[in-house]
UniProtKB/TrEMBL annotation:
<feature type="active site" description="Proton donor">
    <location>
        <position position="71"/>
    </location>
</feature>
<dbReference type="Pfam" id="PF00390">
    <property type="entry name" value="malic"/>
</dbReference>
<feature type="binding site">
    <location>
        <position position="214"/>
    </location>
    <ligand>
        <name>a divalent metal cation</name>
    </ligand>
</feature>
<feature type="binding site">
    <location>
        <position position="428"/>
    </location>
    <ligand>
        <name>(S)-malate</name>
    </ligand>
</feature>
<dbReference type="InterPro" id="IPR037062">
    <property type="entry name" value="Malic_N_dom_sf"/>
</dbReference>
<feature type="binding site">
    <location>
        <position position="238"/>
    </location>
    <ligand>
        <name>a divalent metal cation</name>
    </ligand>
</feature>
<dbReference type="GO" id="GO:0004471">
    <property type="term" value="F:malate dehydrogenase (decarboxylating) (NAD+) activity"/>
</dbReference>
<keyword id="KW-0479">Metal-binding</keyword>
<dbReference type="InterPro" id="IPR012302">
    <property type="entry name" value="Malic_NAD-bd"/>
</dbReference>
<dbReference type="GO" id="GO:0006108">
    <property type="term" value="P:malate metabolic process"/>
</dbReference>
<dbReference type="InterPro" id="IPR001891">
    <property type="entry name" value="Malic_OxRdtase"/>
</dbReference>
<dbReference type="InterPro" id="IPR012301">
    <property type="entry name" value="Malic_N_dom"/>
</dbReference>
<feature type="active site" description="Proton acceptor">
    <location>
        <position position="143"/>
    </location>
</feature>
<protein>
    <recommendedName>
        <fullName>Malic enzyme</fullName>
    </recommendedName>
</protein>
<dbReference type="InterPro" id="IPR036291">
    <property type="entry name" value="NAD(P)-bd_dom_sf"/>
</dbReference>
<dbReference type="InterPro" id="IPR015884">
    <property type="entry name" value="Malic_enzyme_CS"/>
</dbReference>
<feature type="domain" description="Malic enzyme N-terminal">
    <location>
        <begin position="48"/>
        <end position="229"/>
    </location>
</feature>
Length: 534
């Protein structure tokens, strides 16, 4: 027998000194030795492949450090560069060329009947980065990592999907390493036929699955939500998840702002800078909330002003896109208002929400104007990733002399201003979709109803501890996300029961405390099946 044969048949021995240090510390040191976000992302991706349990253990124990790598902002870099950093298949690509046999492609995914949650993107609007085509897969993977870490969904029941339908971004079509099909995106007719086949095939192959649509371009985001939501178990994260998370933060922020001003929640006026899937999704969620407070829909709608790249959206504007019509103002008859400062002077908003993808759109002049109109202005620059955020946290604090109530889409660190510590909120749908998904899966809800989304939002806003309230936070600390997801799931299950869409009726007889315990007991824990040393 040759030496080469001997060495290939003997299992490699792990030298005992490898265990002198906790391997988690070794992995963290390796992670921290990487100098760029993208290198850290690649490192974590490799760790997940080698040892998924350890990967999630590290993510849970070091959330504030690791989530911004797996998710926004760094996942944006990963998507932008995905064709170049690709190592191995780690999700399901369904290409436009698979039309006619999509179910066969779905059957190649290894989890079959046990699949519970799929995040599906077509890569056409990844964060605020535009049409990234097949490079969009990491957004589905990152969202599912949050389902696993944040809600305790079992990793083996998740399905990350990127629909590879082409791209209209020429730079990718010209890139020899581009991973997707080299063609422009289909027209509506071709895409509709593909999507109909896709959603039917999903239901056939994965009968218990919840589908989260993610980062579709705005028209298609609304289109496929409207087409599928009453027939299938689906929701759109950018419209509904964002609506819920921002409503939740708004409720807490508006309380702080109203307390300072001596006004009521009903007195708020909200200006949306950006009127796409996210902006309009949030605006609709706010209308629904104001009606819960007793306002008529018409009066609730009057509280909302929307702005797009052409300025304040008014009903007399020609060729308005469908999704902008509902909020178009009928009470402004002057010349078009295009400058944000002029719009603010006209509207006098108490809250300014940015979902525009325009970096630094909330200039010093804008922020100071908001502070001059409000004792505690609510300013939420929600565009992702950080490179597209409408205003940095430190600037917002300095320009309002510390009075701002702030939440951004991507994370900022706490800061010190004139000797006082200030802590930002992160208004990101990551606080909602894990719990919304968990509640939907456990109740086996046939559909995701409006009330399930709304109750998720209200449960999140009610989840602040006294300490978090005392620190003027509008969202709970991310490190508590598992417990918060369980509380949200409880509210979602109850809403599903009220709407009579829960196919699992066993939970109906349980008290809230008992149900919460059941939900927590279902949360997957990393590390349960691994060697205690690792
Ligand atoms: N924080 C969170 O949880 C979430 C944040 N987002 C972020 O929101 C942003 C927008 O997403 P979508 O609504 O889906 O995109 P979109 O492209 O549909 O909407 C962008 C909107 O901004 C407007 N806009 C563009 N340039 C403008 C300008 N110069 N002045 C005023 N308005 C301008 C557009 O007209 C459009 O109405 C993205 O950056 C995305 O990452 C989206 C979902 C969730
Ligand atoms: C957070 C998210 O879903 C987005 O920026 O698109
Ligand atoms: Mg999104």
């Amino acid at each position: 027998m040759s030496l080469a044969t001997v060495s290939s048949t003997v299992a490699p021995q792990i030298p005992p000194y490898l265990f002198n240090t906790d391997h988690r510390q070794r992995c963290l040191a390796q992670l921290r030795s990487k100098t760029t976000g993208l290198e850290k992302y690649i490192y974590l991706n490799g760790l997940k492949e080698r040892d998924p349990s350890l990967f999630y253990e590290l993510a849970l124990a070091n959330m504030l450090e690791i989530i911004p790598i797996l998710y926004t902002p760094t996942v944006g870099d990963a998507c932008s560069n995905y064709s170049h950093i690709w190592r191995r298949p780690e999700g399901l690509y369904i290409s436009i060329e698979n039309k006619g046999h999509i179910r066969d492609v779905l059957r190649t995914w290894h989890v079959g009947d046990s699949a519970r949650i799929a995040v599906v993107t077509d890569g056409s609007r990844i964060l605020g980065l535009g049409d990234l085509g097949a490079n969009g897969l990491p957004i589905s993977i990152g969202k599912l990592d949050l389902y696993i870490a944040g809600a305790g969904i079992k990793p083996t029941t998740t399905v990350p999907i990127c629909l590879d339908l082409g791209t209209n971004t020429q730079k990718f079509l010209d890139d020899p390493l581009y991973i997707g099909v080299r063609r422009k995106r289909p027209d509506t007719e071709e895409m509709d036929a593909f999507m109909q086949e896709f959603i039917s095939a999903m239901e056939e192959v994965f009968p218990q699955l919840l589908v989260q649509f993610e980062d579709f371009s705005t028209d298609n985001a609304f289109r496929y939500l409207d087409l599928f939501r009453s027939k299938h178990r689906v929701f759109n994260d950018d419209i509904q998840g964002t609506g819920a998370v921002v409503l939740s933060g708004f409720i807490n922020a508006a309380k702080l702002s109203s307390q300072a001003a001596g006004t009521r929640l009903e007195d708020h006026r909200i200006l949306f800078f950006g009127a796409g899937s996210a902006g309009i999704g949030v605006a609709k969620q706010l209308v629904s909330f104001f009606t819960l407070l007793g306002l008529t829909e018409e009066d609730a709608k009057k509280k909302i002003y929307t702005v797009d790249s052409k300025g304040l959206i008014t009903a007399d504007r020609k060729g308005l896109q469908e999704h902008k019509i509902y909020f178009a103002r009928t009470d402004y008859n002057g010349p078009p208002l295009t400058r944000l400062t002029d719009i603010i002077k006209y509207v006098k908003p108490t809250a300014l929400l940015g979902l525009s993808t325009i970096r630094n759109a909330f200039s010093e002049e804008v922020v100071r104007l908001m502070a001059s109109l409000n004792k505690r202005p609510v300013i939420f620059p929600l565009s992702n990733p950080v490179s597209l955020c409408e205003v940095d946290y430190a600037d917002a604090v300095a320009w309002t002399n510390g009075s701002v109530v702030f939440a951004s889409g991507s994370p900022y660190k706490p800061i010190e201003f004139e000797g006082k510590k200030y802590e930002p909120g992160q208004g990101n749908n990551m606080y909602i979709f894990p719990g919304l998904g968990l509640g939907t899966i456990l109740s086996k809800a046939r559909h995701v109803t409006d009330s399930m989304v709304e109750q998720a939002s209200i449960a999140l806003s009610a989840s602040l501890t006294k300490e978090e309230k005392d620190a003027d936070l509008v969202y709970p600390r991310l490190t508590r996300i598992r417990d918060i997801s369980a509380e949200i799931a409880l509210a979602v299950v109850r809403a599903a029961q009220k709407d009579d869409v829960d196919e699992n009726t066993l939970f109906r007889s349980l008290s809230d405390n008992a149900l919460l315990e059941v939900i927590k007991s279902k949360q997957w824990q990393p590390g349960a099946h691994r060697s205690p040393r690792l």
